[in-house]
Every structure is written in C-alpha cells, then in structure tokens.
C-alpha cells in the first residue's frame, strides 16, 4: 500500500459496507430520517475531529522541527534535516486539512482564511505596504505563508511572474539571521499551531447542520475545476511546493468519505442507480488524478485559455485533465458528479444551503 493510499485507508470500501449494514439495521428497526441524520452527524463529526487533530499535531511538529541557529539564519547544509522535517510535517497537515476542507471552510470561514489564505489573498487586504516581515505572526500567515518560506528556492517562473505584479509583493525568502529564524519558529509557525488549536476547540461543541455540510462537499467538488484552471496563471493553490495535484486527490477522497456517510440513507430510499452515478463520478476523477505522475499539476500548454481551449491543447496532459474535471463539475450534465450530488440532496430532501 502506498503512502497516499494508507492516508486514505480509513475511507475505504469496507467502511462504506459497514455503513450500509447500519442503514439496513436502522430500517429494520423502523427508524427513519431522524436516525439517519443522527448517524451522519456523528460520522461527520468524527471525520472532522480526526483530521483537525492530525492538522494540529502536524503544525506542532513543524514548529518543533524549526531550527534556532546561533548567530545565523537557516543554512541548507547544516539545517537540511530540520528543513526536511518541516516540509514533511507541512505535507501531513496539508493533506489532513484538504481531506475535510469541504465541510470546514463553510463552517469556519475565518479559520479557513487564517490557515489557508493564499499569498495574493493576503496582499489584497494589506495593500501596497505588503508584509515587510514574513516571519512574524501578522500579515501573510498560515499554511501557504510557511510553504512560501520552506520552498523559497524553487518558486516556479509563472508563479513568480504573477506575484511580482501584485501590489506589496516581496520576494520569497528563508530566514537569513538568527532573529528571523527565531521569529519563524516562535511567531509564524506558532501562529499556525494556535490557529488550528482554536479551530479544534471551536469544532468540539458544534452541532453540525448536515445540509450545510453536504453543500460544502458539493462546493468543493465544483471548486476542483477552479484549482486546475488557476495553474494556467501562476495562482494555483500549493504553488511553491508544487503539490496542487495532491490537494485535488485529497479533496476527492474527502468528498467521497463525506458522501459515504450519506450513502446508506440514499440506499435506504432505494436510490441505487443514483448512488452508482455518484460513485462513477468519483471514480472518473480518481482515474484522471492517478493517471498523472507525482503531486504537481501538469503545466498548461503555451497559449492555453480555459474560456476557449484550442483543439491541439485537448490532448495535452493539462488539457485532458481540465476537460475531465470540467465535465464532472458541469451542473447541466446530468451524468456529472456535480449534478449527481445535487440529485442526492434532492432525494434526501436536504434544504438548500447558501453557496460559500
């Protein structure tokens, strides 16, 4: 089993079969929608708590691994082991968050901004002054602020071109002095720990609105097209680590895991054909993502336009991926994953929630 597969093992088919058995038992006992809702709420709360705790632990490990050299900043020879450990911790936290982003982001929008805002999102609020101190706990913070520092030596050319045009832009850099190294550890990295711990505390007492949660997974399914399309302009999500494809895989796995909580309820209503449509959509995305090597999105071909793709671009790895994701997020296509999830919400009589 690969590392990525092992991360997602808790969302595997045996779990879905167990939930189907639970649904059958509920139906046999004469229990209806209230029991199904209660089961979904408990299952979703467990998923969210598990991944947020994993996110918080990864943030703590990143802070712990950050070096505090005496009389100097980071040295890529002397601090190589520490930088590798921080990158690995960042990756664990990133995957944990992406697995449950669909539910967490609409429930806790301020936390989503604090932990997951991109560099350009932060600069939009900071203005021309930008963030003069990238290592403190103010201005540009969160996962992508840390990512930008850890991978400062490998910013892709298209990302650099996009960011240099932003008001307030400053080049990505690693700590070059003892003071900056200390600030990164005790302020920026620690800020992520405290922000995620605050999210964990907010989540603990909350009673989930399952209709809102389901809307969140539908939104995240649709937003996968935006995440692919942004790669053509240097604005993709994990743009410095070049792991946006891994983000998409985690998003798909997390959306599937959330759907599997609703699946027994749908099957209890004898909607097997609809369930098969949903699973087929998730599988088509899995095949498309896994057909690509590594964790980075393929580079868009020169002259790419998502508004008017050229025929010669369709056969490129990026063009093919865009076409597949676009098809699965097309609400006008009844066979698409997005349209199928909308049909599930209707079948379960889930009230419409506001799109985030």
Structure explained in plain terms:
- There is one protein chain.
- Helix 3 packs antiparallel against helix 4 (80-107).
- The protein has one domain: A middle domain of Talin 1, CATH 1.20.1420.20.
- The two termini are 36 Å apart.
- It has helices spanning 3-7, 13-28, 33-65, 80-107, 109-116, 119-126, 143-150, 157-164, 178-203, 210-229, 244-268, 272-290, 317-328, 337-347.
- Mean pLDDT is 90; it is low at 1-30.
- The longest helix is centred in the N-terminal third of the chain and has 33 residues, at 33-65.
- With 356 residues, the chain is mainly α.
Keywords:
356 residues; mainly alpha; 64% helix; globular
Task: Give a quick rundown of the structure.
This protein has helices at 3-7, 13-28, 33-65, 80-107, 109-116, 119-126, 143-150, 157-164, 178-203, 210-229, 244-268, 272-290, 317-328, 337-347. It contains 14 helices and no strands. Helix content is 64%, strand content 0%.
């Amino acid at each position: 089993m690969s590392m990525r597969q092992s991360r997602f093992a808790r969302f595997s088919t045996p779990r879905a079969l167990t939930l189907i058995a639970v649904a059958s038992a509920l139906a046999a006992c004469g229990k209806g929608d209230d029991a199904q809702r209660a089961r979904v709420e408990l299952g979703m709360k467990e998923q969210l708590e598990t991944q947020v705790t994993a996110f918080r632990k990864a943030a703590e490990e990143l802070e712990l691994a950050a070096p505090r050299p005496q009389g100097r900043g980071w040295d890529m020879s002397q601090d190589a082991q520490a930088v590798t450990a921080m990158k690995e911790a960042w990756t664990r936290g990133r995957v944990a968050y992406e697995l449950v982003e669909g539910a967490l982001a609409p429930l806790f929008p301020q936390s989503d901004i604090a932990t997951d805002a991109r560099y350009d999102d932060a600069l939009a609020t900071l203005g021309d002054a930008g963030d003069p101190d990238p290592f403190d706990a103010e201005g540009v913070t969160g996962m992508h602020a840390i990512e930008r520092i850890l991978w400062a030596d490998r910013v892709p050319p298209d990302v650099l071109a996009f960011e240099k045009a932003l008001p307030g832009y400053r080049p990505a850099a690693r700590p070059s002095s003892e003071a900056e190294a200390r600030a990164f550890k005790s302020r920026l990295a620690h800020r992520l720990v405290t922000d995620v711990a605050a999210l964990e505390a907010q989540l603990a007492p909350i009673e989930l609105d399952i209709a809102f949660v389901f809307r969140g997974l539908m939104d995240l399914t649709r937003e996968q097209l935006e995440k692919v399309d942004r790669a053509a302009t240097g604005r993709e999500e994990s743009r410095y680590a070049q792991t946006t494809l891994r983000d998409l895989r985690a998003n798909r796995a997390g959306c599937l895991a959330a759907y599997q909580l609703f699946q027994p309820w749908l099957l209890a209503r004898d909607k097997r054909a609809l369930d098969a449509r949903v699973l087929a959509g998730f599988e088509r995305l899995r095949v498309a993502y896994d057909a690509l090597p590594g964790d980075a999105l393929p580079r868009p071909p020169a002259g790419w336009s998502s508004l008017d793709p050229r025929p010669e671009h369709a056969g490129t790895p990026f063009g093919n991926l865009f076409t597949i994701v676009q098809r699965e997020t097309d609400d006008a296509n009844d066979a698409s994953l997005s349209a199928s999830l909308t049909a599930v919400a209707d079948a379960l009589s889930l009230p419409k929630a506001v799109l985030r």
